[in-house]
Structure formats: C-alpha cells, structure tokens
Specification:
This protein is an alpha/beta fold. The protein has helices at residues 12-23, 50-56, 97-111, 167-170, 234-242, 293-313, 318-321, 323-347, 351-359, 365-374, 383-391, 395-416, 424-435, and strands at 2-8, 28-31, 47-49, 65-69, 71-75, 82-86, 92-95, 114-116, 120-127, 130-138, 141-152, 178-187, 196-199, 209-216, 219-227, 252-262, 271-272, 275-277. Strands 1, 2, 8, 9, 10, 11, 17 and 18 form an 8-stranded mixed beta sheet that branches. Helix 1 packs parallel to helix 3, helix 8 (323-347) packs antiparallel against helix 12 and helix 11 (383-391) packs across helix 12 (395-416). The longest helix has 25 residues, at 323-347.
C-alpha cells in the first residue's frame, strides 16, 4: 500500500502533521519506535506558552497539564538582579508530557491516520533520486512502507534526513548549536513557586541556563542545559549546582533523564525531493529559551497543509514543496533566526557583564518580552550606563550589544523575505554575510 504522507515520529510535530493531513483528506501512516501507550513520554522542560495553543486553535483537556503560571522570572548569575516577565497572552502551561502526547496522538488517529508503533526506521527508500518511503524493523520483522511524501519528525535522531545524499539536508547540527540537557521531576517540601524560574550562569551552565518550573501539587521540573561543545556532563552539573538550590531543599526525586536539544535557527531549507522535515529534526526550537513544543506543532501543521497542496498539484519535488519553507519562515522562522543572534551574544558574554547589564537595566523585562514575541531587541543604553561600563573596562559589551541588535533586525528581515526556489543560493549568501558581521564566539569567563 502506498500512502500519501508517511510521518516518521509521533512526537508533537509528527502528530500535528498526521492529524492535519488526515483532516485534509490524505491517507497517512504514522510510525514511531515506542509502543502506543508510551508515546508522549519525553524528557523536557514540559512548559508550553498558551499563545501556541491559541494560534493552533487547540483546546487542551485539563488532564493534559499540571498547572499554569503567569510568567517567568530570570535571575542574574550573582542572584542580585531578576527580571519578571508576565503577559496574559504568554501564560506558561506546565504539561503532563505523556498525557499531552497521548492527546495529540488520539487527535491524529481520530482524524484517520494509521499508527504503526514499535517500528524502528533504518533508512529512506529512493525512487528516481526522490524519497519514496522508509525501511525498518517492526514487531513482525523487516518491513518497507511507501509514500508519495515522507515527513521527517523523528527529533534529533533524524533517521531519514541523515540518510539523504545531499550535504545541505543531511548535515548534523554543530555541537555549539546543541544543548546537552538533564532534568529531574522532584517533590518539594517548601512553598510552591508561582512563576517559572530561570538562572543564568556562564560558569555553572556554559552556553545555557538552569531552570526550576512549578508543576503544581508540590512538584517541580528542575534542570539545566549546557552547550554540547563544552563536553561537560549535564547530570553532574545539575547535581552540583541545581540540586542544592534553596527551592529544592529537602526535595525527593520522582524521575530524571537527559537528552540533546538543537537551539539555533531553522535549517536553511527543510525540504528535499519527496521529503519534508519538521520539529527538532529541522531545528525549530526557540534559541531564546529552548522551548520547542509549540513551534514543533506549528511546523507539523504547515508541513501538512503544503503537502496536501503539492500532492493536489502533482508536484512533490523540492520546488513543489518549497512553499513549506516560505510559510514556516514567515510564521516563526524569522523570529527564531533573529533570536539565534541574541543567543550567540549571551553565550559570548561573561557573568560580570550579565550581572552589570541586568543591574543597570540595559535590557528591560519589556524588551525581553518583545524579543520573545517578535524577535526584535530594543535597548535602553543611557549615557550613565555607558560611563559605568567604561569605568569597569567593559565598554566592548555595549558595542557588541548594539551590533547584535542591528544584526537581529537584518537577519529577521532576510528571513521574512525568504526566496523562491530559484533564488535560494543567493539568499543563503546574504544571510551568511550578515551573520559574519558579528564577532565569532570566544571562550571567555569572568
């Protein structure tokens, strides 16, 4: 049997792609390596901004989440300064990750998608150079499935994408753009937190941050991410730096685990002949905070809509699927690419610079909120702050921050002008030229 769309991976992107495509009348097969009852179980921060549900038109059943929070509190490395960021349109929802995953899966199956669980995809199948299905090992042994279009939604495993004979689509993410994460769900004895807590520290969590997110009923999700290129153990860092923190005093472990998360801009192109890529495999995670649930679902939805249009037009080669790139970049990718510039700036800043910058309000909570919404960075650099930074010999911090804000705007503009298929090579050259105007990251410590 040949399917219209074969989706590899029943995560957030895969289930959204499968349900959307099925509702559009496509014959869909959904494959996942887990058994059906375990789909949805994943180690992550479990937080989702309410605006993602609004934009997708999803009404979340109460059993899918533990609690909601009015916002987030960001702490400086010395813990002397903090930003409280609250916005009613950006309420944080602490998910029951398995229940949420099962909800998305039920939506896909109810819409008509066929599920094959416990199937390990090993490689793509090609016909005339185009992807035409996958091979793998299932409950009944080796098996092959054919499809007019394959959706790669298998996360960082990227089992299909990495089997494509094209360097652009199969390239692994650089380690400096990947976070090695570890988190634990803990039962606490102290007072319940009312906001998500984020802790910046370039020495304890180089390239990343630590977090403590309330789950309700005396439970928290606590963890950290470290840039994978650092080579450090995130679990060891968690036990040394996060577990002893005051909100976790006397807490007991419920469960724990780790994984890798790409936190960069999206892939330059997320399509190949007969193949579309979504979710973590396409690097759709926000570089600002590492959250990827909402953007994964969005990418899956757009993928399915464009796939249906391409199948109707009878054109599933790269040019026929190209509209997926354009729509995703306009909907989220442009903001994501802009925030990736800011991520690199933060990773190249020292604790001393971050402490001083937060204490003097160089970037205000309202500016961070605006950046998280639209990808623009406003600055509040007064003459007094400039003199203060000159006084401690850190004037270059302000120079780099101003340059970062300019590059963010330029990159966002380029992504909002994402080209047609014929103009892709020239567009990539322009993006690289703008990004190269930033200094390369340096190994710096306060």
């Amino acid at each position: 049997m040949r399917y219209d769309l074969l989706v590899v991976g029943a995560g957030c992107a895969g289930c959204m792609a499968a349900s959307t495509a099925s509702k559009l009348g496509l014959k869909v097969l959904l494959l996942d390596r887990k058994d059906e009852a375990s789909i949805g179980e994943k180690v992550c921060g479990d937080a989702l901004g309410s605006h993602h549900l609004d934009s997708l038109g999803l009404a979340l059943p109460r059993e899918c989440y533990h609690s909601t929070s009015p916002g987030v509190e960001i702490h400086s490395p010395d813990l002397k300064s903090s930003f409280v960021i609250e916005d009613e349109s950006l309420r944080a929802i602490s998910l029951d990750r398995r229940a949420f995953g099962q909800f998305l899966l039920r939506q896909a199956i109810s819409a008509g998608a066929e599920l094959v669980d416990r199937f390990h995809v090993s490689s793509p199948i090609f016909e005339g150079g185009a992807v035409a299905g996958v091979r793998g090992i299932g409950k009944d042994g080796a098996r092959a499935y054919g499809a007019r279009v394959v959706a790669e939604c298998s996360g960082t495993a990227s089992v299909v994408r990495r089997g494509i004979p094209d360097a652009e689509i199969s390239r692994p993410f650089p380690k400096e753009d990947v976070m090695a994460c570890y988190r634990e769900v803990r039962r606490t004895k102290g007072e319940a937190l009312d906001r998500l807590q984020i802790y910046l520290d370039q020495e304890k969590t180089p390239g990343g941050y630590a977090w403590i997110f309330p789950l309700g009923e005396g439970m928290v999700n606590a963890g950290l991410g470290i840039r994978a290129s650092e080579g450090a153990s995130p679990k060891e860092a968690f036990l040394e730096h996060v577990a002893p923190m005051e909100p976790l005093a006397g807490s007991t472990l419920v469960n724990g685990g780790g994984g890798l998360v790409p936190t960069s801009k999206p892939m330059d192109s997320m399509v190949y002949d007969g193949l579309m890529v979504a979710g973590d495999s396409a690097s759709t995670v926000s570089p600002m905070h590492g959250g990827g649930i909402g953007s994964s679902m969005l990418s899956g939805k757009i993928l399915a809509e464009v796939c249906a249009e391409a199948l109707s037009a009878g054109s599933v080669e790269r040019k026929g699927l190209w509209e997926y790139n354009k729509r995703y970049m306009a909907a989220y990718g442009a903001k994501q690419a802009s925030l990736n510039v800011f991520r690199k700036f933060l990773q190249d800043s020292t604790n001393e610079e971050i402490n001083f910058g937060m204490a003097h309000g160089i970037v205000k909570p309202s500016d961070v909120l605006l950046a998280s919404k639209v990808g623009d960075l406003n600055l509040s650099i007064t003459d007094k702050a400039t003199r203060a930074f000159r006084g401690i010999g850190k004037l270059d911090f302000l120079v780099r921050l101003r340059r970062t804000a300019r590059v963010m705007k330029a990159v966002k503009k380029l992504y909002l002008e994402y080209p047609d298929f014929e103009g892709f090579a020239g567009w990539v050259a322009k993006v690289r030229a703008v990004e190269s105007s930033l200094k390369p990251p340096k190994k710096r410590r306060s």
